[in-house]
Amino acid sequence: MRDSHRYVxxxxxxxxxxxxxxxxxxxLSRIRLQQRLSLLEPxxxxxxxxxxxxxxxxRHPVQKSDAEIVKLAKQVIPQLRSPFACELLSWRLEMRTLxxxxxxxxxxxxxxxxxxxxGYGRWLTHINKYWDEPYFRLEGVYPWLPEAVMFxxxxxxxxxxxxxxxxVWKYLQRMEDGHVFDYERVLIYLFRxxxxxxxxxxxxxxxxxxxxxxxxxxxxxxxQAMHSALSG
Amino acid sequence: MNxxxxxLGWAGMYGVMALGAIGSIFGCAVAGQAAIGxxxxxxxxxxRYIGISVxxxxxxxxxxxxxxxxxxxxTAETAPALFGIGMMAxxxxxxxxxxxxxACASAIHASKVKPEIFGLSLAPAAIVxxxxxxxxxxxxVVAGSIPG
Lengths: 232, 148
Description:
The structure holds two protein chains of two kinds.
Chain A: H1 8-13, H2 30-36, H3 42-55, H4 66-79, H5 83-106, H6 124-129, H7 145-154, H8 157-175, H9 183-202, H10 204-231
Helix pairs in contact in A: 5-7, 7-8, 8-9
Chain B: H1 2-41, H2 46-53, H3 58-70, H4 79-113, H5 118-121, H6 123-143
Helix pairs in contact in B: 1-2, 1-3, 1-4, 3-4, 3-6, 4-6
């Protein structure tokens, strides 16, 4: 039996993250978080690193294929000692698989039955079978699918991201029942920290401001190039 | 057989204090770790956190008092009563201290996020303390009727 109060000190030292969409920044920086995580037992820390290596997008170069990530998932998940961690990670990857399937279909791609390396989880065959159905006949299991498809069709990635993050946040709320100061609660905190981090980066206003800066910068360079060409 | 009964009597007399101490050790350790964690994350209120974390130490004091109340000549007549009262009161004190420590850890964690609920967050720990007091007081009352 694992000690339900094993990480009481670690969890008390982590600042409260607040509600998802009210956060402006992550409750503590990545460096500080890493420092605090040194309080984890070595085997738990190793597991957390393996999970982060799979889920953090920034750790995957753009040229890395879906098949490579799926292969990594198939290596990492069976090695996790905690059933809770397996469930959490599998659920998250299944959700990403669904979104990937929707994007592929929107882009006119086809998935052959033999190809099972484009996604992870129990729905691959099901999605293949019901590829032409609007929600792969999974709207009963994932009631948010129609809304996600609508945002995708409207070309609104921020709303889609918001919806996804909200669903993960609520799932984590359900999962945290019965976990107060244990390893599972640490995992939930880390997942939440990641969600807050992603939202504060994907936040519409921030993204718009960044986009405007980039466009402005680009236009300025064009303007300077034209000016120098004309004067030269 | 007689020696075994006498040994049980000694176990009951000392056990109440020992079990209370074991509970206080676990309770204070858990609450203390929460207090240290909270101090890492906050700039003020450290004294409060430490104050809460020592709440589970009262059980060992109750155990000591009950032990002295039970202290008498251990004979075949008194030993069963000493064992029964001492062990049962000891177990109650031990579990109350462990659980009170967990309640204190939660109170520290919650009041760190919302300092305004500091007083209310202590209510569960105080209720657990109340049960420990019941076990303590009635152990004293029942100990009065042991012969010898």
